[in-house]
Amino acid sequence: MSSPQRADRAPHPSDRVVTSLRERKKAKTRRTIQEEALRLFAEQGYDATTVEQIAEAAEVSPSTFFRYFPTKEDVVTQDDYDPILLEAIRAQPPDLPPLTALRAAFRTAFESMGPEELDRTLARTKLSTSVPALRARITEGLFATIEMLAGAMAERAGRDRRSPAVRALVGAVMGVMLASLFTWVEQNGRTPLPVLLDEALGYLEAGLPI
């Protein structure tokens, strides 16, 4: 009779492989759904496109669509960038000034995005700023990002996330981010977003000289 496995045993390498494969498959499905949704939105408009059409194009069932994106709006507004940025912030040397650390973290986060991912982000940003139904969801996402940045910078500085200094810093950075996004959309992506944002953060870091 075999002995029972310890509940606290370390995962077997094969377990990690299975988990990794499963996560990659889920990420691929999520990406395919979003790509097909953006393609259909561009071809026939956001309002005219249904979840059923997106699911059919992505070769998944509508129920699978809803497992990845609770609503049609979410297929445009949801992304995985905040966790990536948070990890990049925490990886910065503790002696860096706050804005320098944030600027470096944004560079690191953008390095994980290839040209295709940036193109999808541009398409999503255009939709988010032009479709009334999406604007409220974008506001929710901005508040979530503000909270994430405030928590990360407060953690670095050993300050309360609600302190005026932390909130002023995060507010200034979010203003720079929004200005960079608007410029990116106006230029139709001519200047890469990482370049626009890094330049804008540089102005902020230098005290906003004009």
Description:
- It contains 10 helices and no strands.
- By secondary structure, it is mainly α.
- The protein has 2 domains: 58 residues, Arc Repressor Mutant, subunit A (Orthogonal Bundle); 132 residues, Tetracycline Repressor, domain 2 (Orthogonal Bundle).
- The longest helix is centred in the first third of the chain and has 32 residues.
- The termini are far apart.
- The N terminus is likely disordered.
Largest sheet: number of strands, sense, barrel closure: none
- Percent in strands: under 5%
CATH topology of the largest domain: Tetracycline Repressor, domain 2
Structural class: mainly alpha
CATH class of the largest domain, please? Answer: Mainly Alpha
Please report the distance between the alpha carbons of the first and last residues: 78 Å
Q: What is the approximate shape?
A: globular
Q: Helical region count?
A: 10
Cα radius of gyration in angstroms? 20 Å
Supply the number of structural domains: 2
The CATH architecture term of the largest domain is Orthogonal Bundle
Report the uncertain regions.
Answer: 1-9, 12-17
What's the total count of β strands?
Answer: 0
> Could you spell the SSE succession in H and E letters?
HHHHHHHHHH
Helix content: over 70%
Name the average pLDDT. 89
CATH homologous superfamily descriptor of the largest domain:
Tetracycline Repressor, domain 2
Domain HTH tetR-type: 27-87
Transmembrane segments: 165-185
Organism: Microbispora amethystogenes
Keywords: DNA-binding, Membrane, Transcription, Transcription regulation, Transmembrane, Transmembrane helix
